[in-house]
Specification:
Blueprint: H1 3-16, E1 18-19, H2 24-41, E2 46-51, E3 54-60, H3 66-82, H4 86-95, H5 100-104, E4 117-122, E5 126-134, H6 138-152, H7 157-160
Parallel strand pairs: 1-4
Antiparallel strand pairs: 2-3, 2-5, 4-5
Helix pairs in contact: 1-4, 2-6
Length: 161
């Protein structure tokens, strides 16, 4: 699959993975599902779910460090600004042979386009937050989030892989 095709697939994935509703209990259940799947995969990640300017779930697994929370903050800022996954934004900028700083004037101190933060979208509402992980290579971080959201919503893995 070419980079352009992968970017189109990521956009379709973001549009497809929308919640009918989302609340504090949803955040708890999704966060626990992310933790369980990360453990199953042998990953050591920090997990964060932000909804409407409030952190509803945050968990740092053994083997992570405060740096992972900082990576989450920077990746989440990308999602909240562009309403796109941090992985898709990184791929989009790479295809344009540019950076966030060069193209948008955004500091790398506050924004990171590495994979692992995904838009929390509510159907007929839009992006209302971000679901983020940090600790694995960027593609694994992205896949962990997107695949767990897909399973959480009862959608087919084949469409998001």
């Amino acid at each position: 699959m070419s980079s352009e095709e992968e970017l189109l697939r990521l956009h379709a994935e973001e549009q497809r993975l929308q919640f009918p509703t989302f609340n504090h209990e949803s955040a708890w259940q999704l966060g626990c599902a992310l933790r369980q799947e990360a453990e199953r995969r042998g990953l050591h990640v920090t997990i964060d779910i932000q909804f409407a300017d409030q952190t509803l779930f945050h968990y740092a697994m053994p083997g992570t460090s405060p740096d992972n929370a900082e990576w989450i903050r920077r990746k989440r800022n990308v999602v909240l600004r562009f309403h796109r996954s941090s992985y898709a934004m990184g791929m989009r900028l790479a295809l344009r042979n540019t950076t966030l700083e060069a193209f948008y004037g955004l500091s790398n101190a506050d924004y990171a386009v590495q994979g692992g933060s995904f838009p929390l979208r509510i159907a007929n509402c839009g992006c209302v937050g971000a679901v983020s992980v940090s600790g694995a290579p960027q593609r694994e971080d992205h896949l962990l989030v997107s695949e767990v959201i897909s399973n959480f919503l009862g959608l087919s893995q084949a469409k998001s892989a």
